[in-house]
């Protein structure tokens, strides 16, 4: 039976995230979506959290359920439309949630279609800054201005706007001067457990042992320069045979083609390079544990979720100054030690060598301290509860506006959604309320 969202209360009871997948095989955006949804369910227990996706299997549904999230799969449409087209039809089981959360231009367009006017709160999340991407993606100079314009227009239509990290907030503020932009900096990924190397591993380290540098991410041709893969490869080449680069992210059966790209663009030979297809997350965790160093050499990066995965496991890492996560790290006492200030292979080589000269125990102790400091500074709990408070203010405001226009609420009956969709959870984690509740939406032009 469909779950009605027409209820007496104007509080925020249901929140629906829109994304293409749950298991985050595409990294970045879908990874952030999953962890944001999971942590909203964990720390805001009076909100029922749903995720509406275009593809899902039973494993996805069960995994989401274990994490307090109800997964809703879109119905397949005939004629093989685009993967996202089916999401424009609201799910039968939740046609009018209190809050809809959409990511970027692709999913923002879907939210614009399915969000009933004036009936629920639309939260738009920004992940990239198109003017930055246009500098390094081939053939994008004509296309990206239109994408950037569409992104801005969607934000203007949304009820609230979030950016992933403070760096994007600063960049978008000049384009959305009358909007209150809030940054959410993703916290530690708790299901990526901290790796503590055994003394046995350290005892076998010799001076001439190969130093393994790990890098992973999207590897489509127009992403490679933007992600700085050539920078890291050139750095490894200049350091000599004792250094080896492992890259995870090749498309299926495309490893040889990607190896050739590395050889042409960085003059790196097979003796110093191993390319893997993008792999399951459990395998990625194992590779992070075996690596001596993770690198994120992006020329531009909205945030850099791959680096957060490395940080969560306690893997030593270096990240580009141009990444959003660097903006978060530089505010930490020990964060600057892992930020590389220049997008030059020579500087990356110097910093990689510095790390390799440290004792393994020192490297991992530094990484562990950084993980702890990051987790204390960027708390999922605090950020999710603050967002819930602010979004609830918007929901109540919209509910009041609707009541003023119609003279009564849409439905004075009992809410089947609040009964049927409400999760029966026993946690006593409170939601911190701010008095008076701040409004999370449009700013006054006088502010």
UniProtKB/TrEMBL annotation:
<dbReference type="Pfam" id="PF20706">
    <property type="entry name" value="GT4-conflict"/>
</dbReference>
<protein>
    <submittedName>
        <fullName>D-inositol 3-phosphate glycosyltransferase</fullName>
    </submittedName>
</protein>
<feature type="region of interest" description="Disordered">
    <location>
        <begin position="398"/>
        <end position="447"/>
    </location>
</feature>
<feature type="compositionally biased region" description="Polar residues">
    <location>
        <begin position="404"/>
        <end position="419"/>
    </location>
</feature>
């Amino acid at each position: 039976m469909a779950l009605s969202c027409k209820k007496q209360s104007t509080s925020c009871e249901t929140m629906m995230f829109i994304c293409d997948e749950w298991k985050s095989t595409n990294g970045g955006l879908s990874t952030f979506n999953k962890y944001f949804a999971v942590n909203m369910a964990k720390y805001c227990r009076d909100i029922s959290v749903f995720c509406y996706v275009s593809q899902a299997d039973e494993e996805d549904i069960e995994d989401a359920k274990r994490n307090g999230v109800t997964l809703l799969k879109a119905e397949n449409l005939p004629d093989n439309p685009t993967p996202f087209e089916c999401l424009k039809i609201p799910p039968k089981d939740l046609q009018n949630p209190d809050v809809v959360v959409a990511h970027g231009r692709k999913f923002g367009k879907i939210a614009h279609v399915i969000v009933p006017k004036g009936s629920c709160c639309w939260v738009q999340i920004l992940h990239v800054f198109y003017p930055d991407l246009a500098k390094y993606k081939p053939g994008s100079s004509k296309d990206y201005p239109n994408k950037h314009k569409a992104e801005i227009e969607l934000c203007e239509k949304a009820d609230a706007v979030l950016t992933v990290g403070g760096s994007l907030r600063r960049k978008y503020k000049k384009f959305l001067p009358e909007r209150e932009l809030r940054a959410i900096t993703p916290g530690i990924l708790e299901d990526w457990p901290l790796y503590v190397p055994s003394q046995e591993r350290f005892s076998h380290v010799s001076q001439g042992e190969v130093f393994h540098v790990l890098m992973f991410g999207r590897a489509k041709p127009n992403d490679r320069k933007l992600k700085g893969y050539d920078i890291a490869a050139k750095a490894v080449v200049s350091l000599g045979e004792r250094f080896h680069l492992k890259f995870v992210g090749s498309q299926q059966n495309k490893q040889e083609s990607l190896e050739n790209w590395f050889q042409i663009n960085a003059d790196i030979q097979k003796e110093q390079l191993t390319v893997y297809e993008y792999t399951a997350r459990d395998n990625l965790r194992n590779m992070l544990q075996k690596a001596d160093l993770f690198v994120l050499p992006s020329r531009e990066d909205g945030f850099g979720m791959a680096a957060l995965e490395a940080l969560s496991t306690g893997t030593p890492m270096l990240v580009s100054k141009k990444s959003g996560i660097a903006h978060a790290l530089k505010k930490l006492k020990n964060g600057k030690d892992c930020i590389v200030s220049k997008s030059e292979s020579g500087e990356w080589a110097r910093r990689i060598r510095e790390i390799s000269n440290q004792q393994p125990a020192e490297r991992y102790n530094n990484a562990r301290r950084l993980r702890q400091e990051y987790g204390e500074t960027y708390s999922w709990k605090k950020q999710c509860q603050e967002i819930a408070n602010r979004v609830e203010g918007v929901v109540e405001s919209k509910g009041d506006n609707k009541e003023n226009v119609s003279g009564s609420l849409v439905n004075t009956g009992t809410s089947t959604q609040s009964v049927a969709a409400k999760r029966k959870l026993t946690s006593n984690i409170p939601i911190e309320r701010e008095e008076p509740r701040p409004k999370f939406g449009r700013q006054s032009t006088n502010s």
